[in-house]
Amino acid sequence: ILKYFLLIVGAVLIFLSFWLAGEALFGELVARACEQYRRPYKLTFAGLAMVLPIVLLALAFFKFANNPLMNIAGVTCLGIVILGGLVGSAGLAQRIGAGLPSPADLTQPWWRVLRGGIVLVFTFLLPFIGWIGLTIWTLVTGFAALVFAVREAKADTTPPLPKVESPNAP
Hints:
The protein has helices at residues 2-25, 27-36, 40-63, 68-98, 110-123, 129-157. By secondary structure, it is mainly alpha-helical. The longest helix is centred in the middle third of the chain and has 31 residues, at 68-98. The radius of gyration is 20 Å and the shape is globular. The mean pLDDT is 90.
């Protein structure tokens, strides 16, 4: 019993740590990912379309089990999906935490991610639905939210086109 308890506590702490690290390192991207969660259906379908080919590619790499380079490539593909999903799903934790406001949010905005992350990670403890369904859904939508947030950030950093004045202007 102690082994399972410690595995669960370890998994909970890993999720919370990655969400807080994502907020600390990529705060602006996490805020953009939080805005993406206004449309969870879009994130679900887009995330499946993005993640499924990468996971299938990783499984194809693992088929060549005798080749260590292929195993490294497979682990790298899965690592990209999982890390991207964790950083992007920090936006979901932030969105949940924003629904639980506190006066401390003004001086310490990371508390939103911690509060929301605790609530979210407790939903993962529901047998089968939480263990598999919600955890995978969170990672898949988190990956899509991160991709959309990065795309938005790149679109915002492009300099505006120079204004061309009309020759007929007064």
